Amino acid sequence: MKIILLHGLYMHGIAMIPLCNRLKEAGHEVLNLSYNTISPDTPSLFGEMDDFIDGDEAAIVAHSMGGVITRAYMEADSDMSHCVKTVITLGTPHQGSKIAEYFKEIGIGDWMFQSASEYLMPKDTPSWPKGAALYSIAGDMPIGPARVLLDAKQGEASDGTVLLKETEIKGMTSHETFPLTHTALIYAKRVSNRILDILA
């Protein structure tokens, strides 16, 4: 199967190489994309995704903001997006990011996130577009800024960066939680095993 990998905010495709290699070893054809996360050129990015899919059945595996970019790709409704049958997101703030909202409220969000704010700010009751099954995988080991800036005030579960409830979205196929931090979701063998199970 053709699989597209999309990394998260402030990352590069390098971060996804271990997962990319695991998927290739399992026999999948993988496109590990890099993109400017604070100023994403979505027309160019979506064009690369379309070109890679090229009419074949495909899946997308995305970490954090990459999952929100994936939803934007599916909503753009290109012909090739209809070939995407499975989407797996890892720690994606589908409902928007409270931590991003916090930084915006204290006056540094525009500088930190620039045009990525369009994808990161909390939305009212978002829903997953029809067509591809969404498997949302989340972490609940709260080591990171959300633990200090949000959890202490609200007592909410998180992976240290994204609140657990933010990883849920109306229309998803399943929601699973692992005892992992936000970044560890990319590298944990138990998560890559689960990804391979879903794609089998």
TrEMBL record:
Name of the protein in question: Cob(I)alamin adenolsyltransferase
Keyword Transferase: yes
Organism: Enterovibrio norvegicus
Gene3D superfamilies per UniProt: alpha/beta hydrolase
Residue ranges of every copy of the GPI inositol-deacylase PGAP1-like alpha/beta domain listed in the record: 58-99
GO terms assigned for molecular function: hydrolase activity, acting on ester bonds; transferase activity
The organism's place on the tree of life at top rank: Bacteria
UniProt cross-references to SUPFAM superfamilies, sorted A to Z: alpha/beta-Hydrolases
Keywords linked to the UniProt accession: Transferase
Listed InterPro entries: AB_hydrolase_fold, PGAP1-ab_dom-like
Pfam families linked: PGAP1
